[in-house]
Amino acid sequence: MKALLIPMCLVCCAVLSVGQTPDAAQNSQPPNYSNYSIMLVNPALGGGAVVLMHSPKNELEFIPVNNTKQAFALGYTAVRAAELGELINALKEENARLSAENLRLQSQPAAQISAPNQAPSSADLEAQQKAQIADQKAARRQQMIQTWVMLRGMNRTQNLNVNVTNCNQSPALCAGR
């Protein structure tokens, strides 16, 4: 009797679970992996696994799975799938922006991009002169600051420890003795 009871329970459980699977599959949404951590597994036998983590210095490091508890205690945080998704989307957007800019620059005539044979206009010459004057003023200012710092250091009093053994030869140094 006991021998029949266990197989009967297994069959009932299997029938109930099989009956619910199609409805659950139709109503369930795909799983959300955004809060999952990233782990890399070596396919070789006994190869181990590592978890991608942020160090306290905000650098990415691969930490062996066996050491994750210590890493969490030291302030490491696991990299989440959502972070990698955001990074990939940002890179896609940057790539699309740069591709569009590249196409725009390639479609411009070469004369618009650079014209080395043209003489500079008066506005260009004036702008160059203003830039040169500003550079010269900045260089003079920097030189004045360096001179001031050097002179400021020279005017400091310095304490000297002098040991005089012959007060007859240098009596001014032995005034307090």
Account of the 3D structure:
By secondary structure, this protein is of the alpha+beta class. The chain is 54% helix and 9% strand. It contains five helices and four strands. Strands 1, 2, 3 and 4 form a four-stranded antiparallel sheet that branches. The longest helix is centred in the C-terminal third of the chain and has 33 residues, at 122-154. The chain is flat.
Helix % is: 40-55%
> How is the quaternary structure best described?
single chain
SSE pattern, N- to C-terminal: HEEEHEHHH
Give me the number of helical elements: 5
Characterize the biggest β-sheet. 4 strands, antiparallel
Q: List the uncertain runs.
A: 1-25
Mean pLDDT: 75
Report Rg: 39 Å
What overall geometry do the principal axes of the alpha carbons give?
A: flat
Q: First CA to last CA: what distance?
A: 117 Å
